[in-house]
Fold:
Amino acid sequence: MNGWPLLGVAVIALGFVLRFNPVLVVVTAAVTSGLLSGMSVPDLLALLGTSFASSRILLIIVMTLPAIGLLERAGLREHARAWMDRLRGMTLARLLVGYLLGRQVLSMIGLQSVAGPAQTVRPLLAPMAEAAAERIDPALPEAERDRLRALCAATDNVGLFFGEDVFIALGAVLLIQGFYSQHGIELTPLSIALWALPTAIAASVVHGVQIALFQRHLRRRAATRQGT
Amino acid sequence: MLRVEHVHLLLALFMAYAGWRNLREREAWRGAFWLILAALFGTGGAVLDAAHAGHPLPAQLAGLAVIAVALIAPKLGHRRPAEQTTPAQRTASAACLGHRLFLPALLIPLVTVGVALGGAKLQWHGWQLFDPVQMTLTGLALACVLALFAAAAVTREAPSLGLLEGRRLLDTMGWAVLLPVLLAALGQVFTRSGVGDAIAQLTTDALPTGSAMACLLAYGLGMVLFTVIMGNAFAAFPVMTAGIGLPLLVQHYGANPATLGALGMLCGYCGTLLTPMAANFNLVPAALLELRSPYGVIRAQVVTALVLLAVNLALMALLVFRH
Structure:
């Protein structure tokens, strides 16, 4: 076994830790691993070119930008905030936990592309969460706003991951079934998906607690500031 | 027939537009960055065809272009294109348009799901509207185009303004938008140069085979580690399960394969929440939400991921060996 290509992994780790530009780090790692595995320079260039070409559809998120951009210009985010202000009973925690559960349920029935960072988090969830947080603390500092937006994106991810795993017709479950089937073990998709359910429930509880803790943190912060 | 190639072409045109705007604003590096990417997108299909036909030259040129893009990326900086409208204008417009603003945004998921579920039935006398290859993605692209025109109708603006605003968002995200593609390419290079096999070898060599629980822990933590390195639990699962899960846990210690597979995959998902290598989930949203640190989303996920990992390992220990 040739262990030298593993240095590519070291390049990644070091590059991210030393805060080099991630694009440069990733391409450097690819070149490192390729060359150390004994690939010739023309072969490596061709491999880079074909791998980029065959994965380029991953950039499809860019397609959403013109429509979302035009709506933002017309006040989509401002409207999401104003709407949140009218929903008096909707606290920050209720909004985010509701989004988390909705995202999980939709992913479980196969509707993963309904939401996402470009479709829902930036134009809708983040401004609504900010409006709810400003109700707790009207002078929300930038650092807290940053943490809140990150929490919105995290909520979207957790809901997607720990709902998708239970969906039987696509993705993880089929990959597991296919792997075992290649090795002579036949399983039904449902028998696999069922075992993902306890973790899906644990995910909503654990992340729900995180959200509640963040809301409490904001409330305490606002209270101590008013006290002094 | 609408094919995924049309989506690539639209993306290439949009990036070329972004590059051209940047050049006009004397942002030479940004202009070059998007123009090279536009060329890579527009020619990608031809590059793949030539490579399959045994002509490596176009692919080698594309590889050089990828390296050029990587060298330009650090020069882009954090400059953000100016907003075209003031907050007061947007608030007034929001008050006037109200919930109608949500409709075009809702069109994107509705049309996407509609095409995914019913797209194959849209045909006349053997002529299909959608190519079955990657139909969901073609549907998503169509949904975005329809949503742009719907947004133009609702806001009574020209659709071309969407390009202007879309380009503003694209430059806000900058190089981060490119990472998912580059990481997928890195994954292919890692696979081809034997990195995956080497890691699997190291993990299995270091494995204590004496106890079932130690094996189980090594499998779960191995899934996390491998996912953190490769950025994708789907890449980790076959390697770790073929190395440890199947031969040791299932065949030697009699673990239930369905339970082991499902929970093992979920250990990998906890790893996905922790790694910058999963760029489309962790770094792209950070750029899209204009966070100050590209690792802000990961930081917001660390506690959830680690607690869930502990829960998951406990569930494995309790459930996997039960029959």
Notes: The mean pLDDT of chain B is 89.
